[in-house]
Amino acid sequence: MLKNLFKSTESYLLIVLLAFIVVVGFINPKFFTIENLFDLLRSSSGMAILAMGFFIVLLSGGIDVSFTAIAISAQYIAVNSLIASGVDNLAVAFLIAVGVGIAAGAINAVFIGLFNVPTLITTLGTMSLFHGALLEFMGTKAVNTGGLPECFKTFGHFDILNLTRADGTEYGLSVFFLILVIVVVVTWFILKYTQIGRGVYAIGGNKEAAKRAGFNIPKIQFFIYMYVGLLAGIMGIMHVSLIRYSNPNYIVGSELGVIAAVVIGGTRITGGRGTILGTLVGVGLIVVLEKNLVLIGLSSYWHQFFIGLIIIIGVSITYLQNKIRSKKNLIFVRDT
Amino acid sequence: MKLTIKNMQNFVLFVILLAVVAVISISLPDKFLTAINFQSMTSQFPEFGLMALAMMMAMITGGIDLSVVSVANLSGVMAALVLTSQLGADGGISATMLIVLAIIVALVTSVVAGAINGLIITLAGVPAILATLGTQGLFLGIAIVITEGHSISGFPPEYLFVGMGQILGLPMPLVIFLITIALLLVIMKKTRQGFNMYVVGANPIVSRFSGVNNTRALIQTYMLTGLMAGIASIIIISRVNSMRPGYGSAYLLQAVLVTVMGGTDPRGGFGNVFGVVMAVVILQVIQSGLNIMSFSPFFKNFTWGFMLLLIMVINFYLNRYQQGRRIAETKKRVAAEASGNSP
User: Fold this and answer.
1) Which ipTM did the prediction report?
2) Which of B30, B34, B75, B316 could, after both became Cys, cross-link B233 (CB 3.0–4.6 A)?
């Protein structure tokens, strides 16, 4: 048990994360407060949910770069529908956003599952298709706080746990964290205990073998990309509720951060390997790094650089381990 | 000339090109068929044409290069730094020397960046998609850190010749593009590197056991893709007359679109320069048409995404048709042999 603990990528990653947190906490003691923890959870739950989606895609041997375009489309359409219809109901907003997300995911799946188009090329195309269509046909006007339906603002401020500061004011743990926990548990359950979840691992390991073993590949791919769409829809609503502002150009462009979190979590695009824990630790590392760049004395210009660097270091370590293992066992894999 | 499937593909592309030109010329005669429009078109497409050629080479080897635009940004910034440096004013270097130096710096930067891609892909065994996704962020990140997000401008006026000058009535970007195409044709058709690229892309395990040095072939491929981006950056900074990191982010999709439209197989092994060049021109003609009809950039984005998916679906049916025909032919041959051998 203990031996295994030191073998896995997640434990190394966890050590890096803890070391990083200690360093940051040393520089800024305020970092070690529960208030700061709650704050981080509130602002990063959305990203973690997107990471869950990308994790499943990567596990199945695919790449998705369209999920941010889906998230913003779902959000902007939901917000504008609510304003246009005068309905001020969060459930309706979620229904619309999730519906848009699943529909967009199904479009991805049609090309990937039925027409056998490589996943990157499909999602590169749909990213432009979705975002281009949104800006062309829905408009480019941002909805500011004043125009936003009340339900989003209430949702953004809704806490499941309230604590009192020394001066008597209150702060709390956002409901976003609860949603993240539900998403993580559901994802874990699907991957571990359902036929379709095992199929995700199987097609990531070897698509041809999975096919011959009797897995329905297009069905699994439809599930994967529609699930990513669903998560993107949920994240879209959380995002607008958090920042209380809906701009159709937001979220798009932040996919690299999510991808970085998942790949440093140890998920491989070949081999069907990866764990939810690794992904969550990866998200933690990215979030703590992003929020504290300025603290270490680096301006926000370094953000892009570090995300890129983290992806490269993360994938290099993951695939180098794989390569060494293959070499030892005289396995010749397609190394391109 | 033997009419193979690949020849046929290029022929179909040529017909599409003529059709697109004809349709747009007829619908917008007084705006499309003008010398000014020809000038602007031929100075626009070399930029993403070069990136598409880079994408083509990566795809032929079975990979992809998502970092082309970022490499172009980084080498553009490096060249811009040289052009605006004090070397010219105080260092006693003439303007011509400064320009030559800037071009060398841009090309060296891009080749080094490409070599980094190649090293990550081969030595660590990282799939090209993930490796170049990472360097896409890294190289752009370096460019942003260097410039702190601002644009660099104030180049010597002589440098504008690279992007806006003319030789024999042809815009300089087009001349540079044509020279690069000639160079690539030689590399792809006449050198061992070109041959190895196709073999590695078709099947890396077979190529490895056939005595091809996969590592070397791939590193050289990504150095070449980097070089293409570097050449593009030289044109970009002159044409825009400044350099701001983040320029041309839409080129990535266009490069992928043009590459698959030109008959390159994203799974590796197939692709040719002529097909991609024709696809580049087709895209530019459509782009000009959309520009003249003043469609929004969002609609253009939508169109590119739609076209990319459409082409992939058409390819799917083409492949299936060809496969079906091959199976039918084999069956016929087997049947003929069986009846011929039977007593």
Assistant:
1) 0.89
2) B75
CA–CA distances in Å: residue B78 to residues A30, A305, A308, B132:
40, 16, 19, 20
Query: What is the rounded CA–CA span in Å between residue B15 and residue B319?
Result: 20
A335 within a domain of the structure (yes/no) = no
pLDDT digits (tens, 9 = 90+) for A188-205: 999 999 999 999 999 988
Residue B30, pLDDT score? 81
Q: How far is B166 from chain A (nearest CA, A)?
A: 35
CATH number at residue B107: 1.10.3470
Q: How far apart are the first and last CA of chain B?
A: 40
Classify residue B246: in a domain, yes or no. yes
Note whether residue B35 is domain-resident: no
How many CA atoms does the CB half-sphere of A299 hold within 13 Å? 9
Range of the domain at B193: 40-294
Which of the residues in chain A have pLDDT under 50? 1, 6, 335-336
Measure the CA–CA gap between B189 and A104, rounded to whole angstroms: 42
Rounded Cα–Cα distance for residues A136 and A133 (Å): 5
In order of A40, A47, A145, A172, B105, the CA distances from A43 in angstroms are 5, 8, 18, 13, 42
* Backbone dihedral angles phi then psi of residue B141, each to the nearest 5 degrees: -60, -45
Find, among B311, B295, B200, the residue nearest to B259 by Cα.
B311
Residue A336 domain-assigned (yes or no): no
**Minimum distance, in Å, between the CA of residue A336 and any CA atom of chain B:** 6
Task: Tokens for A148, please give them.
Answer: 């936003």
Domain limits for position A39: 2-328
Closest-CA distance of chain A to residue B144, Å? 6
Residue of B nearest to A312 (CA): B134
Q: What number of other Cβ atoms are within 10 A of residue B313's Cβ?
A: 16
- Closest-CA residue of A relative to B221 is A336
- Convert the pLDDT of each residue in A46-97 to its tens digit: 999 999 999 999 999 999 999 999 999 999 999 999 999 998 999 999 999 9
Contact criterion met (CB below 8 Å) for A55 and A276:
yes
Say yes or no to pLDDT of B144 above 70.
yes
Max distance between CA atoms of chain A, in angstroms, equals 66
DSSP state of B160: G
Domain total in chain B: 1
Q: Which amino acid is at A155?
A: F
